[in-house]
Specification:
Elements (H helix, E strand, L loop, with lengths): L2 H10 L6 H10 L6 E2 H11 L5 H13 L3 E6 L2 E6 L8 E5 L5 E4 L4 H6 L12 E4 L6
Parallel strand pairs: 4-6
Antiparallel strand pairs: 1-3, 2-3, 4-5
Length: about 140
């Protein structure tokens, strides 16, 4: 996904085009790894020194809720990346060092679901953490 496509999707849903949202997308586009919210904020503040943390977080969550960004917790901190191009339901292996991701094209819940007879699963999140080949 590129920045213009993301902005167009937001406009189609009634959201205004803002420079802060555009800058967040520019920071994340073409990256194959998650970036810490703290790093995104530092980079945004270089262009918009007076923008509040609340505004940046609100935009990060909006972009996540509109399925333009993916979010994960890594080392107790929120990290974000552009929604990956994988078709359909999938999961990721996330490198603990650099945040690079590897797509897992199947869902382990298919196995787990069989073991949870009598339970109703509403949603799930499954991520594997480890080291990528470059960080090993």
């Amino acid at each position: 996904m590129n920045v213009n496509t993301a902005i167009q999707k937001l406009k189609e849903k009634g959201y205004k085009h803002t420079k802060q949202r555009e800058q967040i997308l520019n920071i994340l586009v073409n990256k194959d790894h998650y970036i810490a919210a703290k790093e995104i904020i530092e980079r945004i503040k270089q262009h918009f020194p007076n923008v509040s943390y609340d505004t940046i977080y609100r935009n990060l969550y909006l972009l996540t809720n509109e399925e333009l960004l993916e979010m994960t917790d890594l080392h107790g901190e929120k990290h974000f990346r552009i929604m990956c191009h994988s078709k359909g339901h999938h999961h990721h292996l996330i490198c603990n060092t650099c945040g690079k991701t590897k797509t897992i094209d199947f869902c382990p819940m298919d196995i787990v679901d069989d073991k949870l007879e009598g339970y109703q699963i509403d949603t799930h999140k499954f991520e594997i953490y480890g080291l990528c080949p470059q960080c090993l």
